[in-house]
Structures are given as structure tokens and as C-alpha cells.
Amino acid sequence: MSLPQHYRAILLGLGENPEREGLLDTPERAAKAMQYLCQGYRQSLDEIVNGALFASDNDEMVIVRDIELYSLCEHHLLPFIGKAHVAYIPTGRVLGLSKVARIVDMYARRLQIQESLTRQIAEAIQRVTGAAGVAVVIEAQHLCMMMRGVEKQNSLMSSSVMLGAFRESCNTRQEFLKLIGRSN
Known about the structure:
Layout: H1 3-13, H2 26-37, H3 45-49, E1 53-55, E2 62-73, E3 79-89, E4 93-95, H4 97-108, E5 111-112, H5 114-129, E6 133-142, H6 143-146, E7 157-164, H7 165-168, H8 170-179
Parallel strand pairs: 2-5
Antiparallel strand pairs: 1-4, 2-3, 3-6, 6-7
Helix pairs in contact: 1-2, 4-5
């Protein structure tokens, strides 16, 4: 059965009529949308980075803040929407700026939970850059919690992963958190 046929079966299962005017093309549109939302499965870290590592004598923290992200919860297939803050401490080379956002997108475009997404991004940045440390904080709202279940509209989930210098040094971690506005 093709993906559009599965969506047609879902519509029938919900008690809808997939032959009514408003739903005639919905199975195809939904299938295309889901393929787009899950395109991270068809991407690799090597493709995303594409050699965009540049020699640098900078050994100070590099931060990319407020990277918007959209992902789908693996438990309910409902969106979670938020932003990622990514930092690393270079050791001889820096990553092209847009590549940080592309790495976030690649992992966000897969079915998963926020905690896993945070770790995947941190480990990918570490693997690509060989940084002395990597820090990732994600803040997101989960529609599975807002639209169903407890229906809490203003809840915000935060998750973090600290590797290397960010894990080992309280000062480094605090500097990062202060620079992203999460600490005094």
C-alpha cells in the first residue's frame, strides 16, 4: 500500500469520506507533507556539512542562538516547535555558520523525542568539528501536550546536552547559559 493509500485509510478510519470535495487530494498532499517533514532520514551529516570546515585559530566559544526548529513527536506524530541554541569551542577549525542550522534541521526532520534531538545535534557538532566542547539547549512547545492529554497551552520543555568543556567546567557552562539568556 502506498503512503497516500494509507492516508486514505486513515480518513476512512476516522469516519470521513475521502471522496468529498475537500478531501479528494488530501491523501496525496498529506503524504507529500509527511515526506517533507521527515526528510532528515534521507540526509546525512557528510552531505549537510559538505566540507564547510575552515581553519581558524579561534579557541573562544562560538554560539548560534534561536535556531527555529520543527519536529514531530514519535509518540503521537504531532509537531513540537521551538528553538535550539548551539555552542562549541573550536580546536583549529570552525564550521560554516549555516551548517549549524542545517544540522539542527536534519535531525529535527525525523520522528523522535526532544531529548534525543538535543543529544543528536550535540554529538553531530562534536563529531564534525572535533571541538573542545559542545553545548545544545532546546526549548520547545509540544502540540501532543497542548492539543490532547493535559492540554497545557503555555508549557515549554527545555532540554540540554553538555559535552567536553561545557560538562567539565561550571564557568564555561555558565558563560554559555548567560549568553543565551538562561542564567544571571
